[in-house]
Automatic annotation (TrEMBL):
Record domain CBS: where: 283-350, 351-412
UniProt lineage: Bacteria, Bacillati, Actinomycetota, Actinomycetes, Propionibacteriales
Keywords: CBS domain
Protein name: Magnesium transporter MgtE
Gene Ontology CC terms: membrane
Domain of life: Bacteria
One GO MF term: magnesium ion transmembrane transporter activity
Record CDD domains: CBS_pair_Mg_transporter
Amino acid sequence: MNRSSSVFISRLRGLPVLDAAGDQVGKVRDVVIQMRTQGRAPRVRGLVVELFARRRIFVPMPRVHAIDAQQVMISGTVDTRVFSRRDAETLVVDDLFDRTFPREGAQVSIFDVAMSPVRSHDWEISEVALVPGGSRFSSLRKKAAGSVVVDWNEVPGLVMMRQQSTERTVAEMQDMKPADVARELHDMAPSRRAAVAKALDDDQLADAIEELPEDEQVSLISILDPERAADILEEMDPDDAADLVQDLPEPLAERLLARMRPEDAEDVRNLLVYEDFTAGAMMTPEPVVVGPDATVADALAKVRNEDITPALASMVFVCRPPLDTPSGRFLGIAHVQRLLREPPSSMVSSMLDTDLEPLATDTPVGAVSRYFAIYNLVVAPVVNVENELVGAVTVDDLLDHLLPADWRGDQMDGHLMEVARG
């Protein structure tokens, strides 16, 4: 861990938070952390930012672009919904500052907490500043009394305790793959499953729900409060979210769609108009798209985005503006493997695969599977009647529609593992 880049949270508090345009959106008020097991340092989930209207919102660490002594820079869209702490979360300032505990025969209190980056957009609690005394007193008196800096694991409040059942379970799930989290949820009693689901991060719960059988997806999303359920649908892949919404009772589906961000709800609604088991119904509306003037360097920068799945990252679609789906006229595709062999300044449009015809939105699943087999693909373009790119089908989307309807249930019960072992 790079201690030289540690940031003490008392110095972070109150710093202005600027968006990508350099405009101030608010000030840092607290830092949200989550305990982890197996001797691992607490993970920093994000910042609590107070807007000018005194509304407090949550900014996840992947949105934090840079931190220095004068400001915090963030990127992407700011979610202005009021911050609400989850059961498994701890606020550093509100919960840890001034907390007292015995150490070496005397009472000490927490004066400050430091966080350090461990990789891109991933921070952990690293050190804690302690001062003598067992009661609250002013910062000036604390500073005058002198402090000692210790590793995070020397502070009892930062070490996962076994009696914290839900919090401990969530911590143990932090590094699990989505299918493994889904299997854990599947095996829990309903009340236990509900408690754990409510404490999980939005992105982790969304990924796990995608791996559950359809009836369990419906059951789990239905027990969440509508605002949280809408957040989960926003985090899911649009095609998976559309499949889930289609299985919900219509009044609940409309209620959740109304609470989603307009652009996310529009993606889901657009997918719902296609017939089941067609390319349109199984596609994702968020493929990698570039314009005809894009260079190889431009295209490769897009596929490096860690949020893009390996299947989607294998192909770049070239279209006339606009580049959001539905795009302008679809021009063709470029295989990323080919781009990797070309100079960065070369034009992507000069290396299009002209032999690959796009799928139509009404192409049935059987024809889609033959198309994938003929061209040895893991992703394929889908266009509408105006030859505009509307999405892409990936091989995992295709498998979801080819496998038996109950295959996820078999996976949860371990049947697929038995088959795999022979």
